[in-house]
Design a protein that fits this description.
Length: 1464
């Protein structure tokens, strides 16, 4: 019990000394501040410089409560630390971890190789370019400081030096991390950047996930320490009690607040180590056995190692032997087991000593030193078992509570709180005794476990560095894998025993590793390892030590962080100081921008009403007026004049249904005009027509009827004018204007009022929508607008309009039906035409249908006719049941001959039977006397201009029809000039017959009064949205019943008529639709969506809302598809706001992707090939594959192959045909030999001219007037195709394949296929679908991986047996990076991505260079789309970007600022 009582009364072992001499530290306070000005922890110049208790000492200094600006500033900074430090550190660590993840991911990405010369030129030009306007920092100072703090923390943690980071943060305009990266990657050397990358990507220690957090970028101790002392003699001399050692001088007692906290000692080489026994048993027994082994080892070292007796210490040996006796008398002591352990340990130490001597790695060790040699401790989990505290930590030979000891030995047992060390240093003593019977983990065990978690291959080694002194000081060394070492030692603190010293230094090391030193901000408790809680397992005395280390760390970290925040605030203040000047500059620019802009107004009526009335009355008296009035009064609608005017007086809207020939198109506008002028009322009447020829011919006719002289329309002397695309004939005197629907919509886009408000519709009093039944997308949209505005009198007119439907749409408005003036028409169908013409075909005829298989048709046929050859995509061209009755014999009435029945069953209805038409004309004009009177004027309806030309050529080459003295041939198409179109109205001389070959323009748009016979092919072309290909295409379809009725009605205007429909009666009765499908239901709505956004009239909240108000609303899916396509090409923003690109695309009536391609090609000056490619993709392919001749056609097509691209192959074939067309007699043969369609190529040229005209009309390209005239002559000329050469300034890069591909990439994106380098498969980047080349592609049968590119662009993607890409071509990665999508340049991760779909890995310098080039190119293209001029600097950037995209070699001349471009 006595022992137990004594142990209870034993003084508590504190973690700090309780008596000491006060030490002056005031002189060192300034040192403390000076040495911590850096944001990193450096080694102190003296042992007391960074003493942990400096703050405690300072706290005892009397405080001055007077106002001190420095204290206020310090408190302000401390508030920043308290408020934002933790948040900043978390964001910093999150950013760094994300960067590491991205870097590892970037290694798996394809590498983008950029020409180093290009990179240098970009960076050089960026240096030379004038500085961009500074961004206005609109956030508060505090927010800016915190954002800058995150940027600073990330950069410093990633290894950039303090000076470099400080320079960067002061130089950049803003505070964001990406801007800082950009600056560093521009101005840092390549070596410096590579060094940082190497540090960040060092993965030599893969299993150690926290290794990077523990290692600071510069080599230094993880904790501050005193200057390391040179190895003292006590470490190397023989182990004995040195008589010359300094005596222990008891120190005077000092207050506890003055006690210095322990610090890690200097980093010294470990020459001696200590290990613990490896046996594992119960704690008490292990402690006794370990103490027995230790004491006996000491006795053996002092007595039994062959040393002279004079060197022995009898007293010490006696005390050690007495201690052995006490141990042996312990109840649990097993002497046999202890002796076994002693022999084992003795043998091990002797073996180590022998090995050291043989290696010569250390001097001859004394017995005392031999016992301290230990093997490195493995950092494995088993260490916990090796490190159970020895009994020496509880009792010792000098223990004053042990019985039997006393007298002089008690003097040796009591050590003072401080002793004098070498060089006059003061060493504080710490009694770090473990509680008795401590069974939990020791500091050494916890350190070993922690190191093992970080690096399982690391070794922990302990060394005793105090020599023979009783004040034990230890050192711990952690040897990480990779030959990196961390070391902690005790320089100015010591313990009573070696094991205490090892525990002490293990605690210091554990704390240092838990909170490693970092660059930039001191991490503190918010660091990545801050959740480490193993210190709670420490014995109480070591937890106290941990708390002391924590207090010291927090004080030092706060001081460091305050200085960092002070620097951040200083940088932000300088940036904010520039804000007033910038705001003043922006205000001045805004004021200048508000200067009045001249508003373009339409011509207004400058003539007073009295003058107009007087002029009209004088006009009525003219003979020409009276003559025309007589003819007008004979029209059926003349009887309804008063009724029409009466309805308009009482109702705002009228639906007028007038049959063909009633005179509604000419008379209703004239009725209104005359009524308004007679009453002296102001009027402006607009009549919209679906076609330009209708607008022009009606204006001329009405002008004549009002008494104007021929050709007066559109002049000051006429009240009538017209306005069509590229041609406007209106004046300030114009009161009645005939315009196309497109022109009417344009009037809604431009503001005519003050500041551009209002529209041209505001001046209109009456608006007439003619031919409403055609249901064009423009006319339907006009109805939406007019219904929303309702500010004018509105008249809706048509021949076959559904009057009740329109009336209901306009809330039950009045309707009026006017009968027509027509004669009976004899209607005959295909079987009647064949029987009448006595025409027949055989199975091998080019007009015969394929009855068996592909090889059956054209087999062994060496001649083929392109009119009867269809492409692979034409099977479904004729909609509405085109093939439903062709596969089975047709049953006809018995009155038809067998020959007629057989011919009807053999005839391919897709073909235009030119021979049958020619035979009908011959029979009608020359053979059938009874029907001869029907041949005076014949109207032939053809699907398109190509067929018109073909028919015209056949008739011209005919021996009789080609005779101008007998027949006049008039082609009629919407693209023909107004003069040529007007000629069809002329009545030929007596004895001369007229043949008009027209499209559906002659169906209702115009009336040719003398037509007596109609030959109707039953087909027309219309735009349809192809669901399979996801694009709008011009397809050939059968007409509806209402169309057929209109066509045959044209033959009964002046007498009884005759009509041949070249389709069967069964088709007419069972397969034809009643009415054509409205365009809004079958077209892509992209163009209309753009028009909705550019209108000055707001009629809905969104595009879908506006279109839902249509007479027949489109499906929401179709609307959303259109919006998505516009967002893809950046014509609209995701919020449906229109962009400059969208405004231009609204003027190009084509697929939006092709429109963007054309605009980009203009900017890159490669317009000619772009026009060809866009036109070809908008029409039929120029390549023909006759059945049975597939291989020959493929070989011919392959001869035009260019760069594995279908697009360039088309351009090459077209260019070859254009050259061949210089010799008209050769071009047909050229097409036949190369399997090209002459008609399709002609159509491509016409579309090219149309697109070019749209570009000119939109003012996006500027050309001289001579070119405009040449373009008009080519577009609207008769017969032969006339070619138009693109002006050289617009096509200077037309031969640069790389630039053409770049324009294609920009236009068609995201229609991109990614090539998998491992499997070689192609996948769409949009939805990762697998795709293959279509058999019609020039790349069919080839491996995509052989092209040497990562991506291909496509135009059409269609699924049949598999997902097929029809037109494809390789593209350069650089074009994707600079021109496509939303780019994200992750500079620190060596990665860039486009829309998060396409990713590359590339070097830092190249990454920032491409980012800069893209920014400048985007700005330049945006300016050019707005029509703004470029500065000199922007021209240089444009040239550089063009050179990069066009693969043009760059050379640097003597003058480094000069950019020289050489074509390869």
């Amino acid at each position: 019990m006595a022992k137990k009582k004594k142990s209870q009364l034993k003084p508590v072992a504190r973690g700090f000394a309780t008596t000491s001499v006060p030490k002056k530290v005031v002189e060192n306070e300034q040192n403390t501040d000076d040495t911590t000005t850096n944001t990193t922890v450096e080694e102190a110049p003296t042992s007391d410089t960074l003493h942990p208790t400096v703050a405690h000492v300072q706290s005892d200094v009397p405080q001055d409560h007077s106002f001190d600006p420095d204290q206020v500033e310090e408190q302000s900074l401390q508030n920043l630390v308290d408020k934002y430090q933790e948040k900043t550190e978390k964001e910093t660590l999150r950013t760094i971890k994300a960067t590491e993840v991205d870097r590892r991911f970037s290694k798996t990405l394809p590498s983008l190789q950029v020409d180093p010369v290009l990179v240098d030129r970009i960076l050089t030009l960026n240096w030379e370019s004038p500085e961009c306007e500074r961004k206005l920092l609109e956030e508060t100072e505090e927010k800016l400081v915190t954002r800058l703090g995150i940027t600073y923390g990330v950069l410093r943690r990633q290894g950039f030096s303090q000076d470099r980071v400080d320079e960067c943060l002061r130089a950049i305009q803003g505070v964001d991390l990406e801007e800082a990266y950009e600056w560093l990657y521009i101005y840092c050397s390549e070596d410096e950047l590579e060094e940082k990358v190497a540090e960040d990507l060092d993965d030599s220690k893969v299993p150690r996930r926290k290794r990077k957090e523990l290692q600071s970028p510069t080599a230094r101790s993880p904790l501050p320490s005193s200057n390391p002392s040179p190895p003292s003699a006590a470490v190397t001399v023989a182990s004995k009690l040195d008589a010359n050692a300094p005596v222990f001088v008891p120190a005077r007692q000092r207050p506890a607040s003055d006690v210095e906290l322990p610090k890690s000692g200097g980093i010294l080489p470990a020459e001696s180590t200590r290990s613990s026994p490896s046996r594992s048993s119960s704690p008490d027994i292990d402690d006794l056995v370990a103490e027995y082994v230790r004491i006996k080892m000491q006795i053996t070292d002092l007595t039994a190692r062959g040393k002279p007796p004079a060197h022995h210490e009898p007293v010490l040996v006696q005390h050690l032997q007495d201690k052995l006796v006490v141990l042996k008398s312990h109840y649990f002591f097993d002497e046999k087991d202890a002796e076994t352990q002693y022999r084992s340990e003795r043998a091990r130490v002797d073996t180590l000593l022998l090995q050291s001597r043989l290696r010569g790695s250390s001097p001859k060790l004394s017995a005392t030193q031999e016992k301290k040699v230990a093997k490195p401790l493995s950092a494995g989990p088993h260490v916990e078992k090796q490190d159970i505290p020895a009994p020496s930590d509880i009792p010792d030979i000098f223990d004053q509570h042990e019985e039997g000891l006393g007298g002089m030995l008690e003097i040796l047992d009591t050590l003072p709180s401080e002793i004098a060390g070498e060089g006059g240093t003061i060493i504080r003593m710490r009694d770090m005794v473990l509680p008795k019977h401590w069974s939990s983990k020791t500091p050494k065990t916890l350190l070993a476990e922690f190191v093992f978690k970080v690096d399982r291959y690391a070794a922990v080694t302990y060394s005793i560095i105090s020599g023979p002194s009783r004040a034990k000081r230890a050192c711990v060394m952690v040897n990480w894998e990779g030959k990196k070492t961390d070391e902690w030692g005790m320089c100015d603190v010591a313990c009573h025993t070696e094991i205490q010293a090892e525990y002490y230094v293990a605690t210091v090391a554990l704390h240092a590793l838990t909170f490693p030193a970092t660059d930039g901000f001191a991490v503190g408790s918010s660091g990545a390892l801050a959740n480490h809680t193993s210190f709670r397992l420490l014995p109480p005395v070591f937890r106290d030590l941990w708390d002391e280390l924590e207090t010291d760390r927090k004080l030092r970290e706060d001081l460091i962080n305050r200085q960092v925040w002070a620097n951040m605030r200083n940088i932000v203040e300088k940036k904010i100081d520039a804000r007033p000047m910038l705001m003043e500059k922006n205000t001045r620019a805004t004021t200048e921008a508000k200067d009045p802009i001249p508003v373009r107004n339409l011509p207004r009526n400058d003539i007073s009403s009295d003058h107009v009335i007087a002029d009209f009355r004088a006009r009525q008296m003219r003979p020409a007026y009276q003559e025309m009035l007589h003819h007008r009064n004979q029209l059926p609608i003349a009887k309804y004049k008063s009724e029409i005017l009466s309805i308009l007086d009482h109702s705002q809207i009228l639906v007028l249904s007038g049959e063909t020939g009633c005179g509604k198109s000419t008379q209703v506008p004239a009725f209104i005009l005359e009524d308004q002028l007679a009453r002296g009322l102001p009027c402006k009447i607009y009549c919209t027509e679906p076609r330009r020829i209708s607008a022009v011919s009606l204006a001329q006719r009405v002008s004549r009827e009002l008494g104007d002289s021929p050709g007066a329309v559109g002049t000051l002397s006429s009240l009538v004018g017209y306005s069509i695309r590229l041609e406007s004939n209106t004046t300030r005197n114009t009161r009645l204007a005939f315009v196309t629907n497109g022109i009417a919509l344009r009037m809604l886009e431009g503001g005519t009022g003050p500041n551009g408000q209002g529209t041209a519709f505001d001046e209109i009093t009456h608006i007439i929508i003619d031919e409403v039944h055609e249901r064009s997308i423009e006319s339907d949209f006009l109805l939406i607008v007019l219904k929303s505005l309702l500010s004018q009198r509105i008249i809706l007119m048509s021949a076959t309009v559904d009057a009740d439907k329109l009336s209901n749409y306009f809330n039950g408005c009045p309707t009026l039906h006017v009968p027509g003036r027509t004669f009976p028409v004899d209607v005959r169908f295909l079987e009647d035409a064949i029987e009448y013409a006595d025409w027949f075909i055989q199975e091998n005829s080019p007009y015969a249908i394929n009855l068996h298989d592909k090889s059956h048709k054209n087999k062994n046929r060496f001649e083929w006719d392109e009119d009867t050859v269809y492409g692979n995509d034409d099977e479904d061209t004729l909609v509405d049941g085109g093939q439903q009755i062709s596969s089975q014999p047709m049953r006809l009435e018995k009155r038809y001959s067998y020959q007629t029945i057989n011919t009807v069953n053999l005839l391919d209805e897709r073909a235009i039977p030119y021979e049958l038409i020619l035979r009908l004309l011959e029979r009608l004009c020359f053979e059938d006397k009874e029907s001869h009177h029907f041949s005076a004027a014949v109207l032939i309806f053809m699907p398109g201009l190509g067929e018109i030309r073909r028919m015209n050529d056949l008739l011209t080459e005919h021996h009789t029809f080609g005779d101008e003295n007998s027949f006049r041939l008039y082609p009629l198409h919407s693209t023909l000039s107004s003069e040529n179109q007007s000629a069809v109205f002329d009545i030929p001389p007596q004895g001369v017959r007229k043949i008009v070959i027209a499209t559906n323009i002659a169906e209702t748009g115009i009336t040719i009064p003398d037509i007596t016979c109609v030959i109707d092919t039953g087909k027309h072309r219309e735009m349809r949205f192809d669901e399979k290909r996801q694009l709008s295409r011009l397809v050939e379809t059968f007409v509806a019943k209402s169309n057929a009725a209109q066509r045959r009605g044209r033959a009964g205007r002046v007498q009884n008529g005759l009509c041949f429909h070249l389709f069967t009666k069964i088709r007419h009765d069972t397969l034809l639709a009643e009415h054509p499908l409205p365009e809004m239901m079958r077209l892509s709505l992209s163009d209309l969506s753009l028009r909705i956004k550019i209108m000055k009239v707001k009629i809905g909240t969104s595009i879908e809302d506006v279109l839902s108000r249509a007479l027949d609303p489109p499906t929401p899916v179709n609307v959303q598809r259109a919006i998505s396509a516009l967002v893809e090409v950046r014509a609209l923003t995701p919020s449906e706001d229109i962009t400059p690109m969208g405004r231009l695309l609204s003027m190009l009536p084509t697929d939006v992707h092709l429109g963007k391609f054309l605009l980009t090609a203009v900017l890159f000056r490669c317009l000619d090939p772009a026009l060809t490619i866009a036109a070809a993709l908008s029409s039929k392919s120029p390549f023909i594959v006759p059945m049975g001749m597939e291989q020959e056609a493929d070989r011919a097509k392959s001869s035009f192959r260019v760069d594995n691209s279908d697009f360039l192959t088309i351009h090459n074939a077209f260019s070859s045909w254009r050259r061949a067309s210089e010799n008209p007699s050769f071009v047909r043969k050229f097409c036949r030999v190369n399997f090209l369609s002459h008609q399709n190529l002609q159509q491509i040229e016409e579309l090219r001219q149309q697109f070019l005209g749209f570009l000119v009309d939109s003012s996006f390209i500027t050309v001289d007037r001579n070119f405009v005239r040449e373009l008009s002559r080519a577009r609207f000329g008769r017969n032969r195709t006339r070619f138009v050469s693109v002006p050289l300034p617009l096509d200077s890069n037309g031969s640069n394949i790389a630039l053409i591909n770049s324009a294609l990439t920009a236009g068609l994106y995201p229609k991109v296929l990614a090539i998998d380098s491992s499997s070689g498969q192609m996948r769409t980047i949009s939805n990762n679908q697998s795709a293959a080349f279509h058999p019609t592609s020039v790349n069919f049968g080839r491996k995509p991986a052989d092209f040497g590119v990562n991506h291909l662009v496509y135009f059409t993607l269609m699924h049949s047996k598999k997902m097929y890409a029809w037109e494809t071509g390789p593209i350069d990665d650089l074009a994707l990076v600079l021109l496509c999508g939303e780019s994200e340049f992750k500079l620190q991760s060596n990665m860039l991505s486009i829309d998060r779909k396409i990713r590359y890995q590339l070097a830092p310098k190249a990454n920032v260079a491409l980012k800069i080039l893209r920014q400048h190119l985007t700005t330049i293209l945006a300016l050019q789309l707005r029509g703004r001029p470029l500065t000199e600097s922007q021209v240089l950037w444009y040239d550089l970007a063009t050179a990069a995209l066009g693969k043009i070699k760059l050379e640097t001349g003597d003058d480094s600022t000069k950019l020289m471009i050489k074509l390869p």
